[in-house]
Amino acid sequence: MFVVLSSLLPVVLLIAIGFWVGVRGWVTPSGAKEISNLAFMVLAPALLFRTMSQVHLDELDIQPVAMYFVGAIGLFVMLFLSLGWNRRATVLALAATFSNTVMLGIPLIGLMYGPPGLVYLFTLISLHALVMLTLATVVLELVLAREVAADPSTDLANRHPMVTIALAVRNAVIHPVPLPILLGLGFGQLGWVMPEVVDKPLQWMGSTFGPLALLLVGITLANVLHDMRQSWAKQSRLEAMKPLGVAVRLALLKNLGHPLLVLLLGWSFGVTGLALAVMVSAASMPIGANVFLFSQRYGVGEDSVPAAVALSTLLAMVTVPWVLSWVH
Fold first, then answer.
1. pLDDT the model gives residue 154
2. What is the DSSP letter of 255?
3. What is the pTM of this model?
4. In CATH, what number is assigned to the domain containing residue 100?
5. Which of 147, 146, 135 is nearest to 172 (CA)?
């Protein structure tokens, strides 16, 4: 329990500091939006490129990771289809399947399972963003293209569906998330060594991304709660509390449903021992802050995703030790 708390409390503290900044009004909602653009367009690409440039595909043990992604992608697709085939459904599905594997997963699994466990975790981390964030980006761009093409106020309503799909795929690749992932992966396979004059700035920007994203979660959460209080005067309290209900369901699904699914799949795939323990533990990590940036980028789920990230992190103090007891 102490191991879990020592890893989670810094994350909770960063969200709490951001919440206080938002309550005090030191960063306005428009300012938070601009900072999130900076994180999404500059800091995240630096982190993703540098991380993927250190990956060597021939050294990866794929079977446990493949099992993990079967569960994550299956859950993503199920939620996307059940929630309405739209941008909001995509972001909520990503929230239920994208774990905080770096800021929380590395210290927790390192302390629980030592270097052998970290080998499995780093294999997962090397492909985590590539698979889940690229999947979400492609789906979001396809949905967005469909929405634009179906809007009668534009001149794109009669555009051929294949043209819409081609443009959506292009936008999904030329994008601040998949593009640096693919470029970094290609760089790593070539065996090149990155010059220190380039590597250092990338390292600094990448290390800034996580703390800044968590501060933004707190700031946005303060703004969301402020808007909820104002909406109570205009609509019923039950209606105003709906985003909080969505956040609770997302947090429970991510913290408990996702690891349970990975555990069941592990048994069916024949994955056992340390590999299974690490994959289930990674699935039990709370929602990653990258999901919040996706909600900001595409303008959906902004009323529920910040609350879900914060609540998922708080619940992890109880749910992570419980899940770890499953794998033991």
1. 52
2. I
3. 0.77
4. 1.20.1530.20
5. 135
